[in-house]
Amino acid sequence: MQEKQLLMIPGPTNVPNKVLHTLGAPAVGHRTPEFSQVIKEVTERLQAIYQTKHDLFILTSSGTGAMEAAVANFVNPGDKVIVMENGNFGERWVKLNMRYGADLEVISGVWGEQASPQALRERIEKDVQQEIKAVFVTHNETSTGVTNDIKALREALGDHPALFIVDAISGMAVSPLPVDEWQLDVVVSGSQKAFMIPPGLAFISVSPKAWAVSEQVTTPRFYFDLQAARKSYVKFTTPYTPSTSLILALRESLKMIEEEGLENIYRRHDFYKTLVRTAAKALGLELLTSEAAASSGVTAIKKPDNLDPQQITKIMREKHRVIIAGGQNKLKGQIFRIGHLGYIDVNDIIVTIAALERTLKELSWEFQLGQGVAAVQELLLKGEK
Q1: Contact 361, 32 (CB under 8 A)
Q2: How far apart are CA 51 and CA 281, in angstroms?
Q3: Which of 273, 279, 325, 326 has the most CB within a 10 Å radius?
């Protein structure tokens, strides 16, 4: 029974049984006509989830690899870029752009609040010479449990020619992000979040506007050269050896996503957010984010009085076999986080809240046992009527 555990973190997420079975299948050749058809099929299914008709590529890397590709292929050293930073993964955009020599400007926000479209709009209005080449934003900031308003941020850019580049690693297939409709130039995501397979694949979409920019970019790149990926995809293959097993597993998870339907998936994740937030408040816990800013994929809960969040996550993991996350960077020791994206259901949430209650009781937090679970059950009963 020690092997049995429930992953309730914002990634990696739980893997469905049918996907696990695919991962255990014999190896296949990656330069065969059969696998080329798999690449084509999976890419087209991903385009449907992205809601884009433009190019999309599968990279064998973590999501950070796609983030690096988004910098290396579209930013020259010395290019002026803006990063909207309001969490740990906004800071990753900062670090990547610094490493590649961009002339970086950071618009910092409060961790736990949404990035400000007004702040971006005001900065763009001052750029009368149109020196800014790209704006980098984070869709779902898992470190704080915030979903940024990407539509409003893109509208703040207006008709300025800068590229609009989005980290949607933990937000794609969780919250709406219609890439073409919102005119998002480069969007990255990763396999181990709502796509319900292990880490190891990343996805990146590229608009025609972004391709035109990339033609002028001389930044050195090899493995993450998207021009090479574009050339290979003409034959429905990849420039270098892909993770064949993960791509076959992805095909199965994409079928599951299609069967459920994107709108249903968005509603389900939004409901999970409501369940977890309601349970936390019923237990007398304070949430980090407002309702308007709250992520549908992960909920951040403030440290209860003098309790140590690391003790909470440790007891949950070691005693109850439920894995939740602590805080990151400047929020380490200040919050703990419950992920609710991907392959989970309401029973997983009930188990998680019950385990949290027992953990808090062990740590002498004052509340009536069962309050959180009861709050969830009441919402579920209302939903069944």
Answers
A1: no
A2: 36
A3: 279
Q: Which CATH number fits domain 18-258: 3.30.565.10, 3.40.250.10, 3.40.640.10, 2.160.10.10?
A: 3.40.640.10
Cα–chain-centroid distance for residue 47?
17
Nearest C-alpha neighbor of 64 from the set 94, 96, 39: 96
Residues of the chain with CATH 3.40.640.10: 18-258
Long-range contacts of 230-238 (CB under 8 A, 24+ apart): 230/55, 230/57, 230/206, 233/39, 233/43, 233/55, 233/57, 235/36, 236/36, 236/37, 236/39, 236/40, 236/43, 237/30, 237/31, 237/35, 237/36, 237/39, 238/30, 238/39, 238/58, 238/60
- Tell me the C-alpha to C-alpha distance, in Å, between residue 92 and each of 71, 336, 365: 11, 20, 35
Q: What is the DSSP letter of 245?
A: H
Work out the angle between the directed axes of helices 262-282 and 371-384 (0-180°, nearest 10).
140
The model's pTM: 0.97
Instruction: Please state the φ and ψ torsions of residue 51, each to the nearest 5 degrees.
Output: 60, 55
Residues written for the chain: 385
C-alpha 187, offset from chain centre? 11
Nearest to 183 by CA among 97, 54, 75: 54
Tell me if 329 sits within 8 A of 337, measured CB to CB.
no
DSSP SS3 for 67: helix
Sign, CA dihedral 102-105-107-110, equals: positive
Pick among 3.50.50.60, 1.10.10.10, 3.90.1150.10, 2.40.50.140: CATH of 6-12+261-384:
3.90.1150.10
C-alpha–C-alpha distance, residues 108 and 271, integer Å: 30
Delimit the CATH 3.90.1150.10 region(s) of the chain. 6-12+261-384
Beta-strand relationship, 163-167 and 146-147? unpaired
CB 230 within 8 A of CB 222: no
Work out the percent of the chain whose per-residue pLDDT is above 90.
96
Is 94's pLDDT higher than 50? yes
- Say if CB 325 and CB 9 are below 8 A apart: yes
User: Is 385 a residue whose pLDDT tops 50?
Assistant: no
- Work out the percent of the chain whose per-residue pLDDT is above 70: 99
